[in-house]
Design brief:
eight-stranded parallel sheet; DUF72; 292 residues; DUF72 domain-containing protein; TIM Barrel; UPF0759_sf; 8 strands; globular; alpha/beta
Length: 292
């Protein structure tokens, strides 16, 4: 993931901003409505990217990956919309409690820019729905140059999106967050349609770390900088998540990226150990059955 990458991570202030008061109000409204659930994963399961994570001789990576993690941020669907057969294959290879978080194809978000996409959306969602209980949340990531002037187009897209499928949205252009009134309008739009607001923690774009949730679910895309600070940044996230859970957070979706992905499982293991300790959980620690 090159977005937000910097050559000098040592010069970045990685301090997490304070949580929005509106976030705490929203969480308190939903406190104790559902059991707390956490899903932590990587962005891909390819052996070439996660070199050293898989035992020698592993030929089919997904079954092993899903024995170590309980979820995957499914970026593969951004490049190629999967067929029904592909979805069924992925589903059969994973345990019953595993969740997929597929990204909406770029043919919808980037090339068509949400215009005249009804048929494409229907085909994609019909296929993705076959994950059934293994579908975590679909997410829409807009191009860097998609601006608030097209918020009405986003509204129309969200209004038509199948109501039975959970959706998260990530916008990237600076204009979404440079003015308070624009950001507020965006947050209200997501709340209106019960859409989860994606938070991105990446070195070069600290403005995307708005700490504003629009549902009682937190969808966080964490991008390490292949720097020692990656670990202390995760320490900070554990404490924020602890605060949010106490306030009423129902679900946490936390996906770890790296500019060089091979370190992602190491960061994930560290993060899960910290979560287990601070939140008194018993999540499986990836790689705990071997050294990698």
């Amino acid at each position: 993931m090159k977005f937000g990458q910097v050559s000098n991570p040592q010069e970045i202030d990685f301090t997490l901003p304070p949580t929005s008061p509106d976030t705490l109000k929203l969480l308190k409204k939903n406190k104790n409505k559902e059991a707390f659930a956490i899903y932590v994963g990587c962005a891909k399961w390819n052996k070439s990217d996660l070199k050293g994570f898989y035992p020698k001789g592993t030929k089919d990576e997904l079954p092993y990956y899903s024995s170590q993690f309980n979820s995957i941020e499914l970026n593969a669907t951004f490049y190629n919309a999967p067929s029904k057969e592909q979805v069924e294959t992925w589903k059969k290879k994973t345990p019953t409690d595993f969740k997929f978080f597929p990204k909406i194809p770029q043919s919808i978000s980037h090339y068509s820019r949400l215009l005249n996409t009804d048929e494409k959306v229907k085909e994609f969602t019909d296929n993705i729905a076959l994950f059934e209980e293994k579908l975590g949340m679909i997410f829409l990531q807009m191009h860097d140059n998609y601006k608030p002037k097209d918020m009405d187009r986003l509204r129309e897209f969200l209004s038509k999106f199948p109501k039975g499928l959970p959706l998260a949205v990530e916008v990237r252009n600076e204009e979404w967050f440079s003015k308070a009134e624009t950001a507020t309008a965006f947050y209200k739009l997501l709340e209106e349609f019960d859409i989860t607001n994606v938070l991105v923690d990446t070195a070069g774009r600290r403005d995307l770390l708005h700490m504003h949730l629009t549902t009682p679910s937190a969808f966080i895309r964490y991008v390490g900088a292949n720097d020692p600070s990656d670990y202390s940044r995760l320490d900070d996230w554990v404490m924020v998540i602890k605060q949010w859970r106490e306030a009423g957070l129902q679900k946490l979706y936390f996906f770890i990226h790296q500019n060089i992905e091979l370190e992602s499982p190491l960061l994930a293991s560290y993060f899960i150990k910290k979560l287990n300790k601070e939140l008194k959980l018993d999540l499986h620690i990836p790689g705990s059955d071997k050294l990698f």
